[in-house]
Structure formats: structure tokens, C-alpha cells
Amino acid sequence: MSAKGQSMWKEWLALFFALPIYLFPVLRYLSTGGAFSLHDMFIYTGAICGAEIIVILLLQRFWLKEKFAAFNLEPATFWKDLLVGILLGVVTLVLSVVTRNILAQWMENETVGSMKDLFEGLRSNPALRIWWLGPLLLIGVGQEELTRAFTLNRLWKILPSKTGRWAAVLVSALVFAFAHVFEGATGVIWAAIYGGIMAAYYLRYGRLAPMIVAHYINNAFNFIAILALIEQGIITL
To answer: Which one, 20, 42, 70, 156, has the greatest CB density within 10 A?
Structure first.
């Protein structure tokens, strides 16, 4: 096999080991008949997402022989990444609210129902609510943004043309949407839009930290907002 062929084979194999993280919530959702327990969510955020971070970093450093700094395709400072991440988070959060409200006129959002046990546990234990904000960061780092950046870098090496790079953005968005099937049609559609925005941002600006910050803002706000609506009786479990 030529050197180029060996390189492509390594890229494909790296994807094979990295992408199963997206399958876990789907398989668990289907096996439980459409619901996640509180135990499921903590296992997923702690063990699964934590393991995913380790696997990707090991693949990056020892299998692909690339430094961790290679996740950032362009230079920037910590404060710039933080400010851009906050801005990106606010923009996508507003888009999320608008999109979900529009889609809610035609279809039901199943997010709360599929995670009923989680919200019941968080509602009954205020200390658990604060603790839960920590594992939410692992979701943004492990399951989504680190995996997204890793996947896109692999696909862009396999498909280096401009068309191939945008095709990789589309594939990344669709895979991300598939992983959110437990949220119903509304969640899948928004996840596809969000995944496309994040992948396009990474293609244009090449920074990982702002995506992580934005993702955390979205996840934290959504959980806090849903809990507030439950407390007010607007959402019933």
C-alpha cells in the first residue's frame, strides 16, 4: 500500500473508533422504549463522554501522530475564544428558541418526556441541579465539540477539495442530528441546524474552545429554563 493509501486507512479507522459515541444515546433510547433514567444520564455524561475524550486524545496523539494543538486550525487568545464562544452561544440560543417555537406549531418536542426521570431528580434535589452543571460541560467537550472537530479534520483529509470540505460539514450535521433522535422531530431538525452552524464555524475559523463555550451555554440554559417551567407548572412531567 502506498503512503497515501496508508494515511487514508488510518483516517478511516480513526473515525470508526470516534463516531460510536453518537450511537449510545440512540441505542439506549430505543432499548428503553423512549426514556432515559437519571442513572442513564449520569453514566452517559460521566463514563461515556469521559471515555470519549480519552479515546479521541489518544487517537490524535498516538495513532495519527498529531499534537493536541492541531484541533485549533487558526491562532487566537484565551479571551478572544471566550468572548467569541459567548457570542456564538447567545446567537445559537436565540436561533434555537425561534426555531423550536416555529416547529412546535406542527410537531411535538419529546425532549422533556424522554428525560422525565432526570428532570424529576433535578427538581427534587437542588444540590443535584448545581452538580449537574458540571457533567453538562463533558457533553459539550466529549460527545459533541471535540468529536465534531476530530471528525471534520479526518473527513477534510479524506476529502480535501472545497466541495469535499462542505460535504463533510453536511455529514457532520446529519450525524449530530441522528444522535438527537430522542428529542423527536423538533430536536432532530434543530440539532441538524446547530450542527451545521458549528461545523461551518469550525471550517471558517478553526477554533475549538468557542464551540465548547457555546455548547455549554446552550445546554445549561435549556436545562435551567425547562426546570423553571416545570416549577411554574407550565411543563408537566
So the answer is: 156
Euclidean distance between CA atoms 145 and 126, whole angstroms: 28
pLDDT tens-digit readout, 80-139: 999 999 999 999 999 999 998 898 888 766 667 677 777 888 888 878 877 777 777 777
Burial class of 221 by CB neighbour count within 10 A (0 to 12, 13 to 18, 19+): middle
**11 neighbors 3 (Cβ within 8 angstroms):** no
**C-alpha distances in Å from residue 148, one per residue of 66, 114, 169, 203:** 16, 24, 9, 11
pTM: 0.91
Work out the number of other CB atoms within 10 angstroms of the CB of residue 202.
25
**How distant, in Å, are the alpha carbons of 210, 217, 220, 235 from that of 225?**
22, 12, 8, 11
